[in-house]
Amino acid sequence: MANSKYEYVRNFETNTTILPEVWFVVRLDGQGFTKFTTDHGFTKPNDKAALDLMNHCAKLIMSKTPDISLAYGQSDEYSKIVSIISAQFASNYTFYWSKFFPNTELRYPPAFDARIVIYPTDKHLRDYLSWRQADCHINNMYNTCFWELVKSGVGNKEAEKMLCGTNSGDKNELLFSKFQINYNTIPEIFRKGSVLIHLVEYFEVTTPENTLAKRMKKSVQILHCDIIRDKFWNEHDSLLQG
Ligand code: ATP
Ligand code: ATP
Ligand code: MG
Ligand code: MG
Ligand code: MG
Ligand code: MG
């Protein structure tokens, strides 16, 4: 582009330097999804197709952006390390909607807000992810009880009242005694959310010259495992090596 006397304004774009040696977390969250999920007839409390669509969007972005080392999603939100643009997420969400909801017309354009947070140490980063996974667990337990009560004929207000002040033991007990549901058998995707990491696989192929050659295949893996305890981080020790 030709220089002009106006071009100096471009310098304003570069006056914020990215802090080195820190983690960047971008948290995306669907805007007004309480209404959006109702308007589009999502299964309550957990619409599996909707979570699959969220995971699909995150997976596509991660495969294009190797700098994102991990992504964690639950409900209508997605946390990503290193900045990505929320527009990419929204446009994937819209583009693949009909693949995940073949019988539901998308009634208006969905949007996701994004905030970027800097965490200076590995401990902060792990605590951040633990916070989101604990939030997933707490909300899912509450929502599972709430919707079981509603499905059994209890009114919304009444169900809220019944759950007010209950701890997780009470909720487990309620699910088990009233609805014969063992909370631990509910799918892990609902209880733990989704963890996306890069997977690098090496394998051997036979070349046309009949010799063996090593090949590498990169993909994004979707897990529904615990990320609060050390086990996950020990098994994937390269994640925190930056
Ligand atoms: P980046 O992701 O870095 O922005 P880019 O390929 O989008 O890369 P830009 O400098 O933003 O690069 O340039 C936009 C490109 O899109 C140009 O090649 C421009 O000619 C093309 N383009 C944009 N709008 C139109 C349009 N309406 N019709 C034809 N070409 C267009
Ligand atoms: P905001 O714009 O402030 O984020 P919101 O209405 O999106 O408002 P959230 O706190 O983000 O509020 O809540 C997300 C809503 O979307 C909750 O009501 C949740 O139950 C619903 N939701 C998200 N994902 C699913 C899903 N997979 N299945 C069913 N409901 C879902
Ligand atoms: Mg341009
Ligand atoms: Mg929100
Ligand atoms: Mg939201
Ligand atoms: Mg949310």
Task: Give me a quick take on this structure.
The protein is α+β, with helices and mostly antiparallel strands. 41% of the residues lie in helices and 21% in strands.
Explained architecture:
There is one protein chain. By secondary structure, the protein is of the alpha+beta class. The chain has two domains: 23-194, Alpha-Beta Plaits; 195-237, no CATH class. It is built from eight helices and six strands, in the order E-H-H-E-E-H-E-H-H-H-H-E-E-H. Helix 4 packs across helix 5 (156-163) and helix 4 runs parallel beside helix 6 (168-179). Residues 29-34, 37, 42, 44-47, 50-51, 75-76 line the site of one adenosine-5'-triphosphate. Pfam families: Thg1 (PF04446), Thg1C (PF14413). Residues 123-228 form the Thg1 C-terminal domain. GO terms for molecular function: GTP binding; magnesium ion binding; tRNA guanylyltransferase activity.
Helix and strand arrangement:
Layout: E1 23-30, H1 33-39, H2 48-64, E2 70-74, E3 77-81, H3 86-100, E4 112-119, H4 122-151, H5 156-163, H6 168-179, H7 188-192, E5 194-206, E6 212-223, H8 230-235
Antiparallel strand pairs: 1-3, 1-4, 2-3, 2-5, 5-6
Bound molecules: adenosine-5'-triphosphate (2 copies) and magnesium ion (4 copies).
Catalytic activity: a 5'-end ribonucleotide-tRNA(His) + GTP + ATP + H2O = a 5'-end phospho-guanosine-ribonucleotide-tRNA(His) + AMP + 2 diphosphate + H(+)
Domain Thg1 C-terminal: 123-228
InterPro entries: Thg1_C_dom, tRNAHis_GuaTrfase_cat, tRNAHis_GuaTrfase_Thg1, tRNAHis_GuaTrfase_Thg1_sf
